[in-house]
Design goal:
Elements: E1 31-33, H1 37-55, H2 58-73, H3 79-83, H4 87-113, E2 115-120, E3 125-130, E4 133-139, E5 143-148, E6 156-160, E7 165-168, H5 175-188, H6 196-218, H7 231-245, H8 263-266
Antiparallel strand pairs: 1-2, 2-3, 3-4, 5-6, 6-7
């Protein structure tokens, strides 16, 4: 959720067993379709930027040491000069300084270009918010299609009866962001997409099957229907056939032998 000013109020951490959408909401009750600024900013500010600051801490630490030398040459001997004398303290202070500067710099474009949609269930109004302003307002009854890619950087789209479209970047950023789109679909009477986790799991399973079929084709290994649901059985047979090709196990009828061309190459 977010406050009326836009500050998010997080949804319940535990997903509902029945798959009911659990989007973030404003304190006024509006559904947030897409990620909030805090959701987008948090992982980078808390995880990515601190790691970067630690790796580059030697550069601001060198600047701190030059500052100390200048203060000492000027006859100053304050508490900051004494505290920053040890090299580890300089590295820590440099990392913190670099993190603060880069974090503040990264927040500026996010605030200015962030794009999200609010759905007010009481009035049936959609508002497209870009940066700090409301760019457009539309009625929920005008929505004819809506959907989002569940991947983290997936895009969401909302289409209206007059042909206009709204695009929501990173609509699949997390469960709550994606559930905002699902809640909109439900409110508009449109087909509701399955939960984000199940869609991603299905996509990964399909990708795994494509990769395994390609692996099997490289060694002329017939594909069995049981491999669709049992990856362990596929890997066991694939490993056996690799050992045959490596002359570490006797071949069975139908196995591709070492040095033998693939069936396609024979033709």
């Amino acid at each position: 959720m977010t406050a009326a000013s836009g500050a998010p109020v997080p949804p319940s951490a535990a997903p509902r067993a029945d798959g009911t959408p659990q989007p973030r909401r404003t304190r006024a009750g509006a559904v947030i379709v897409g990620p909030t600024r805090r959701a987008r900013y948090g992982p980078g500010a808390v995880i990515g930027l601190p790691l970067l600051a630690v790796l580059l801490s030697s550069f601001p630490a060198a600047m701190i040491e030059r500052w100390r030398e200048g203060r000492i040459a000027a006859g100053a001997d304050g508490i900051a000069v004494r505290l920053l004398e040890p090299a580890p303290v300089q590295l820590l202070a440099g990392a913190l300084l670099l993190w603060a500067v880069v974090a503040a710099w990264a927040a500026i474009p996010l605030v200015l270009v962030h794009r999200v949609v609010h759905l007010d269930p009481r009035t049936g109004e959609l508002s497209l918010r870009t940066g700090l302003r409301v760019a457009q307002r539309r009625a929920l009854v005008d929505v004819v299609h809506a959907g989002a890619d569940p991947e983290r950087t997936g895009t969401g789209t909302i289409g209206f009866a007059d042909g206009a479209d709204w695009t929501i970047p990173a609509a699949g950023w997390d469960e709550a962001s994606f559930d905002g789109m699902r809640a909109l679909q439900e409110a508009a009477g449109l087909p509701v997409q399955p939960p984000r986790a199940s869609l991603i799991a299905a996509a990964r399973a399909a990708s795994r099957l494509r990769a395994q079929r390609e692996m099997a084709a490289r060694i002329a290994m017939p594909w069995r229907t049981e491999y669709d649901a049992d990856s362990t059985a596929f890997l066991a047979e694939f490993d056996r056939r690799r050992r045959v090709l490596g002359r570490k196990e006797p071949a069975r009828p139908g196995d591709l032998l070492p040095g033998e061309p693939l069936p396609e190459a024979r033709r």
